[in-house]
Amino acid sequence: MMIHTGGGTIFMGCLGALIENTNFFKEKVLKHLYNNGIICFTVIFLFIISPMIYQYFGGVYKVPIGNTLDNLCILLLVLWSIYVRSPISNVLNSKAMIQIGILSYSIYIWQQIVFKDKT
């Protein structure tokens, strides 16, 4: 991805990290994470609605707003899995998944070095 289309993903993660410990997050956002309707809509939007809109409009949707909406949905799901106890969050917060998460970035970095394009 080019930086102007992929940078939003990094920025959304940084935004989540910055607001997580603020009073705004604790007073306004955290209570909405317990609303199953919002979480269900987020999942439906991310996996069904957004791909359908992208299928119809293509880059006209994806580049200016689609990536940002998808990133926001992912941020909400990450925060939900951290703060709301559920069978899904129990699996995602298990020791095995945490270890996979720790290793996955290292594997990603090493594969860039080892499998460098020879052309």
Draw up the topology in text.
Elements: H1 3-19, H2 23-33, H3 36-57, H4 59-83, H5 87-92, H6 95-114
Question: What does the model show?
Answer:
By secondary structure, the chain is an all-alpha fold. It is globular. Helix 1 runs parallel beside helix 4 and helix 3 runs antiparallel to helix 4. It is built from six helices and no strands.
Low-confidence stretches: none
The structural class is mainly alpha
Radius of gyration: 17 Å
Mean pLDDT: 88
Spell the H/E element sequence.
HHHHHH
Major sheet characteristics: none
Distance, first to last CA: 20 Å
Residue fraction in strands: under 5%
Give helix % range: over 70%
* Counted beta strands: 0
**Number of helices in the DSSP assignment:** 6
Shape: globular
Features:
single chain, 119 residues, mainly alpha
